[in-house]
Amino acid sequence: MTPMDSTSPAFKHNVDEALADAGLQRALGNVERGFVPKRRAAVDALPEFEALRDQGMAIKNHALAHLDLYLEAYEAKVVAAGGHVHYAEDAAAARDVILDICKRAGARTVTKGKSMVSEEIGLNDHLAANGIEPVETDLGEYLIQIRGEHPSHIIAPAVHLNKEDIEADFRRVHTHLPADRPLDEPTALLAEARGILRQRFLAADVGVTGANFLVAETGTSIIVTNEGNGDLTQILPRVHVVIASVEKIVPTLEDTAQILRLLARSATGQTMSVYTTLSTGPRRPEDPDGPEEYHVVILDNGRTAMLGSEFQDMLRCIRCGACINHCPVYRAIGGHAYGWVYPGPMGSVLTPALDGLDNSRHLPNASTFCGRCEAVCPMKIPLPKMLRHWREREFERHLQPATQRYGLKTWAFVASRPRLYRLATRLAAGFLGLAGRGRGRFASLPFAGGWTGHRDLPAPERSQTFSDLWRQRQNAKAGASS
Amino acid sequence: MSRDATARAAVLARIRASLGVTGGEETRRAAVAQRLAGHPAGVVPEIGGLSGAGAVTRFREQLLAAAATLSEVATAAEVPGAVAAFLAARNLPARIRRGDDPRLSAMPWSPGLVEVATGRSHGDDLVGLSHVETAVAESGTLLLVSGPDNPTTLNFLPETHVVVVDAADVVGSLEEAIGRLRRRYGAGTMPRTVNLVTGPSRSADIEQRLLYGAHGPKALHVVLVGAAPPAAAPPS
Cβ contact (<8 Å) for B42 and A257? Predict the structure, then answer.
């Protein structure tokens, strides 16, 4: 059962389309120009960043190892503050719990803060099918909602769009506004969205937000945003619903502070995001504003099965997006090509766990194993190692085509016999060196179409193998140092 | 069992099965109870270790770096004048809305200077005025708490948010701010909403360009009370 229809099985086709999409390629340039240098500068300005990474990792490991007990403690605090906690084993259950809350509230419109878990459970379609209008209020989420799309990035959902796309969408959808209004400046687009969404905020019956953290010590849910939409979503309607996955639990407020220092720096290069909001229960009797009802829906949807497995470390993820921003594959193909909710390295580890490896077996292969994702991950998640685990499972479960399996088996046979390996590579290097003497490269080679279809293969110089070159290099080093 | 209770039991059982635990282990329960009661602070960066004039200096820098603006007065009695001057400089009408915070109520607001309405906002106010609970020097962050004194709607609905910060309420780190909160509300207890605000609302969702005033205030102005002005601050 897939809440959001997955196109991951068509990954290779999606990639071809993404590479040929000139608009997408232009928009993707903003990822490297924007996120990467901002993160670098913010990390460099905090000498304790590495120590904080170790702290963050230890806090999450501790929370996961005691998850049952922290959940119980968290729940008791929410209830003591007058809130309600609901558990949902899967996406369908979570949708139904939220729909029931909305129905009991007599809701006609529901405003939404940005929540990837709500994407994961397919909440918007479910509400709409039941006569309740969901209104996305994060600017990026609003843009893709009016386009009928899904986010292409976990913190910048509309990063695949250029401003001309947005202008065209606003003219198409906001038909009550003068047709000749100027909209070529980003500021005009923002002002128009602000005006329209402000009315939706004031009219909404229920507000749904996600959560970056659930704090066991106090029963507090926390959202981290820059726009303030998550706040207007939760303080104006009569009912506030939080949808959060089970691993968002952290023990204490101090633990949260440690991870907050990592989150904004890793995500957008800020010291702190503009709004970090701690919500505990409904409004108090003396409060003049705030929601009268407060519900938290805690989602499992495959995560508890990752506990105790070789994928447990993935549950430390704080959804900062740094691995995505630094991934050469993501920057070439964008988020939609991955075909489901979570793109990039974190998505390629998470999607097979949540949506099944049968649907998503291409994703763990969509990596060059360059290792940048792990290097920038604030929670030190060994992403390449886990991608490799998925590849192993793919092989064990015979999910690859027969030719690929045969090729891998042959490779394994040769590679695990050093003498045979050296002989085979020497023969191959000798042959390729001779054959490629003239031009120094090959435009096509038998069995290597996957490579030569897109680029030339260089011929080995002087017919030497990698092992030969490595040995020479080591000898030269030893000679130089002695 | 109700649907909620069934799902709760199933999720907890699955967690325990995956972790290979029963939930009754004394050592695990003790570890959790100890952490919740002791809330260890972890690594507090050096930039969070400032206090007094040093903390105020860092607070000023970080506040401005986050695109907020600042004016300074020596005493609380001068706040209405500073607010009036700020509104005039921005071409805004001399009208604000604030909550019942006694620190704000005690200030000499005269109708000739600034017109004052009180209570929550319903979206018709141009300028909201709040008083912080604490301010965090490390990141230039304002910590505001919900309630009749400072209704949360004032932090988000008006286009301009003016916030009064007493220099005595500036702490070095987020951990110190949390400690103050815990002392005021009691361990494990929180007000409905705590807002940590670092600069005015913004979005980079259009081509990664930074634009201010996405949904919350377009401008955030701080009136800092009782700190020596920057020029007179001792070198740190």
Answer: yes
Residue B156: closest CA among B96, B75, B214, B81: B214
List the single residue in B15, B198, B215 with the smallest CB-CB distance to A197: B215
> Which of B16, B31, B181 comes nearest A68 by C-beta?
B16
Query: Which of A253, A286, A304 is a domain's end point?
Result: A304
A3 located within any domain: no
Express each pLDDT in A307-316 by its tens digit. Answer: 999 999 999 9
Tell me the nearest-neighbour CA distance from A78 into chain B, angstroms: 10
Domain total of chain A: 2
Domain boundaries, chain B: 3-38, 48-229
- Domain boundary (A304, A325, A359) is at A304
Burial class (CB in 10 A: 0-12, 13-18, 19+), A410: exposed
| Domain around A72 | 8-304
- The H or E element containing residue B55 is helix B52-65
Least CB-CB distance to A277: which of B23, B182, B193?
B193
A275 contact residues in B (CB cutoff 8 A): 195-198, 201, 216
> Is pTM, for the whole model, over 0.90?
yes
Position B59 pLDDT exceeds 80: yes
Q: Please provide residue B134's backbone torsions phi and psi, each rounded to the nearest 5 degrees.
A: -145, 170
A85: enclosing H helix or E strand: strand A84-88
What are the two backbone dihedrals, phi and then psi, of residue B173, each rounded to the nearest 5 degrees? -125, 165
The answer to whether the beta carbons of residues A411 and A420 sit under 8 Å apart is no
Quick one: A293 and A424 in the same domain? no
DSSP for A308-362, written as a single string: TSTTGGGGG-----HHHHT-HHHHHHTTGGG-SSS-HHHHHHHHHHHH-HHHHTT
A302 DSSP 8-state letter: T
Alpha-carbon distance B159 to A286, whole Å? 26
pLDDT, tens digit (0-9, with 9 covering 90-100), for A143-173: 999 999 999 999 999 999 999 999 999 999 9
pLDDT digit string (tens) for A90-130?
999 999 999 999 999 999 999 999 999 999 999 999 999 99
First to last CA, chain B: 63
- Domain B48-229 falls in which CATH fold? Rossmann fold (3.40.50)
Question: Same domain, yes or no, for A47 and A178?
Answer: yes
Report the half-sphere exposure of A360 (CA within 13 A, side-chain side).
Answer: 27
| Residue B227: φ, ψ to 5° | -100, 145
In a domain, A189, yes or no: yes
| Domain at A221, CATH number | 3.40.50.10420
Average pLDDT, chain A: 94
Q: Report the C-alpha dihedral over residues A370, A372, A374, A375, rounded to 10 degrees.
A: 130
Closest chain B residue to A273, measured at CA: B198
Tell me if A337 is assigned to some domain: no
Between the CA atoms of B18, B24, B27 and B28, what dihedral angle is there, to the nearest 10 degrees? Answer: 40
Sequential DSSP letters for B62-124: HHHHTT-EEEEESSGGGHHHHHHHHHHHTT--SEEEE---HHHHTS---TTT-EEEES---S-
Assess whether pLDDT exceeds 90 at residue A381.
yes
The answer to whether position A250 is within a domain reads yes
Three-state secondary structure of B143-208? EEECCCCCCCHHHHCCCEEEEEEEHHHEECCHHHHHHHHHHHHCCCCCCCEEEEECCCCEECCCCC
Predicted complex ipTM exceeds 0.85: yes
Dihedral (Cα; B131, B133, B135, B141), 10-degree rounding? -80
Residues A41 and A189 in one domain: yes
Question: Which letter does DSSP use for residue A162 in this model?
Answer: -
> What is the predicted pLDDT for the residue at A428?
87
Alpha helix positions (H), A49-185: 49-65, 67-80, 91-104, 116-120, 123-129, 139-147, 163-173
Check whether residue A170 and residue A21 sit in a common domain.
yes
